[in-house]
RNA sequence: GCCUCCGUAGCUCAGUGGAUAGAGCGUCUGCCUCCGGAGCAGAAGGCCGUAGGUUCGAUUCCUAUCGGGGGCACCA
């Protein structure tokens, strides 16, 4: 019996009562999945529901009356030990120890599948994130989106969605000229031009191109430019891709902006927007009337000089996603693109989509380091690669996925570098490693998982009940995290599982304690049963860490 | 000026309208002859920025206000 089962049973009970005329409610008022939560206080049972307070008023009765009708039916469910009505109308449910303990076996048997849920079944999602300009290495500002975006992708997939991770390559426009000009300048020992890219990596790219083609140095700037422009960004993009691979972040599609322009997709997009009726011409430019859908000003698609704006590329890109069958287009953007949200949403609406259902823009707060923000142009870059070297992928990904995307993060590099146990990833990984170590010890004493030696009812210590309840909540946490695009909920829940595990470990022995004379007593049923619980915890920790892209070590 | 995010323990931060608001770090006190002490048990520490409103019930939703971050291009 887990919260999902209870919730479904509860919905059924209420619906039956409505059908029987005991409760006067329209059928559609009964939620499909009434909320079933773990009460904060153990005095309030194993699980509690507030459905009587939710529906009581609409049914024209006070919540306690409502609860009086429902509670006896809950009492009849298999695995329910007792039901109490408390306070203003909470229904508190206590399970049989056996019903709770059975979960240990369920989890072990489900293995990697435990935690998967149907929260997002049927969703076809395009998830665009990072999309850093290929004019420099990935730095700390991109790092958060890489970790979060990938974790969101994993969450959605675990919740049944079909997800495509996509990286939009800004390989079109003046910035590549500037980038190439910077490379050219470095190649000839000059300072980079005004507004160029001053970083050390530009030297390295210049050297790499020179190594490929020593003759390029003798060409004039105009002769060399096309080659520089192409190779410089390709080399940089390859570096970005390699860094992301190292970070365990993988994209399904690398989408080129310039291809949109070359293929005529931009012109076609403009035609389609025109056909939708939200465009006009003014002052020699071609505009999209985004103010029809909540933007604070209209946006130019074609400038008076006849060239498309960056936004025109965005329009074509959006339509490409739509044409490729993605119903949901999720954009993960940094706070510096905050001003973009309204126009992107309006763009979706101008293209005939629903701006609430078909597009979702997640804005993340920037990371600051010691109070100083980072800027590529200012040259004070902390590269992702350096961060990986300092901290390792696990610590970095975990600490980034541990906070909501809209929460500002401040990073103290010294603290991060210290790799001390104030980083919660060690706490969670340690619990996993410890459970594996305990399993090895149990193996050595022949305490292995055997179905006939598993007695769910023997897992009745308070620490076991607590641990089991945390494990039971895992699938709904994953589902809620997917729905809320909030990987940090998984991280926080893993921390609470780790805590419950450590407490259990302190209170309940898996292998029997040696006697005074050092001999080992024969294991009892409870020892075998605890082995199942231990391994179930291992499984949930591993599954949860996997969702965050963090490893689950056997030993530390 | 307009838009947006954030104000919760000394610090960094969780908290999907519910019961006594949580965790880590830091401080203090205990716990390994026994499965990993990177752990556990306990203590101290809060007018949830402020003021109204909605509700049976608000840290959570709405309005106002104060304080802090970010954004407001025919750039990309």
From TrEMBL:
Q: Which InterPro entries match?
A: aa-tRNA-synth_I_CS, Arg-tRNA-ligase, Arg-tRNA-synth_N, Arg-tRNA-synth_N_sf, ArgRS_core, DALR_anticod-bd, Rossmann-like_a/b/a_fold, tRNAsynth_Ia_anticodon-bd
Q: Does the keyword ATP-binding apply?
A: yes
Q: What is its EC number?
A: 6.1.1.19
Cellular component GO terms, alphabetically?
cytoplasm
Q: Do you know which Pfam families this protein is assigned to?
A: Arg_tRNA_synt_N, DALR_1, tRNA-synt_1d
Q: What is its main location?
A: cytoplasm
Q: How does it assemble?
A: Monomer.
What this protein is called in its record is Arginine--tRNA ligase
What is the source species? Enteractinococcus coprophilus
């Amino acid at each position: 019996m887990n919260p999902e089962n209870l919730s479904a049973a509860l919905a059924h009970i209420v619906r039956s009562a409505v059908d029987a005329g005991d409760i006067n409610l329209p059928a559609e008022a009964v939620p499909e999945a009434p909320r079933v939560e773990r009460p904060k206080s153990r005095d309030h049972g194993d699980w509690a529901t507030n459905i009587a307070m939710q529906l009581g008023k609409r049914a024209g009765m006070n919540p306690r009356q409502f609860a009086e009708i429902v509670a006896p039916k809950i009492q009849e469910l298999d695995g329910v030990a007792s039901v109490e009505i408390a306070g203003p109308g909470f229904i508190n449910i206590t399970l049989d120890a056996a019903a709770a303990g059975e979960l240990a076996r369920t989890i072990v048997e489900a293995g990697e599948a435990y935690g998967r849920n149907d929260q997002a079944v049927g969703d076809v999602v395009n998830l665009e994130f990072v999309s850093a300009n290929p004019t420099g290495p990935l730095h700390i500002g991109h790092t958060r989106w890489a970790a979060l975006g990938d974790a969101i992708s994993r969450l959605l997939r675990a919740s049944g969605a079909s997800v495509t991770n996509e990286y939009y390559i800004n390989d079109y426009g003046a910035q590549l000229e500037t980038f190439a000009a910077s490379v050219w300048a470095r190649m000839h020992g000059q300072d980079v031009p005004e507004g160029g890219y001053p970083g050390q990596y530009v030297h390295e790219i210049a050297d790499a191109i020179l190594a490929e083609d020593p003759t390029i140095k003798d060409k004039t700037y105009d002769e060399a430019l096309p080659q520089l422009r192409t190779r410089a960004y390709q080399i940089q993009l390859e570096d970005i891709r390699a860094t992301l691979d190292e970070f365990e972040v993988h994209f399904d599609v690398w989408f080129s902006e310039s291809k949109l322009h070359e293929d005529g997709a931009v012109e076609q997009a403009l035609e389609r927007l025109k056909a939708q009726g939200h465009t006009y011409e003014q002052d020699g430019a071609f505009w999209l009337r985004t103010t029809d859908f909540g933007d604070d000003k209209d946006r130019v698609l074609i400038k008076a000089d006849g060239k498309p704006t960056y936004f025109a590329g965005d329009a074509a890109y959006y339509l490409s996603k739509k044409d490729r069958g993605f119903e949901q287009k999720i954009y993960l953007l940094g706070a510096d693109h905050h001003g973009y949200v309204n126009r992107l949403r309006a763009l979706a609406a101008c293209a005939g989509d629903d701006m609430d259902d078909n597009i979702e823009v997640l804005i993340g707060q920037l990371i600051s380091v010691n109070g100083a923000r980072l800027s590529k142009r200012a040259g004070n870059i902390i590269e992702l690669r350096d961060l990986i070297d300092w901290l390792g992928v696990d610590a970095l990904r975990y600490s980034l996925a541990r906070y909501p995307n809209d929460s500002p993060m401040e990073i103290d590099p010294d603290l991060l570098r210290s790799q001390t146990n104030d980083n919660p990833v060690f706490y969670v990984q340690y619990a996993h490693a410890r459970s594996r170590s305990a399993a090895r010890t149990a193996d050595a004493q022949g305490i292995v998982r055997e179905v006939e030696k598993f007695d769910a009812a023997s897992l009745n210590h308070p620490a076991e009940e607590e641990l089991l309840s945390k494990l039971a909540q895992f699938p709904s946490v994953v589902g809620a995290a997917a729905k809320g695009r909030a990987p940090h909920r998984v991280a926080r829940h893993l921390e609470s599982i780790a805590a419950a595990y450590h407490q259990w470990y302190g209170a309940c022995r898996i292998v029997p304690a040696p006697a005074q004379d050092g001999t080992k007593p024969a294991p009892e049923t409870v020892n075998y049963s605890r082995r199942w619980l231990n391994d179930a915890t291992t499984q949930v920790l591993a599954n949860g860490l996997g969702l965050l892209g963090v490893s689950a070590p056997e030993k530390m």
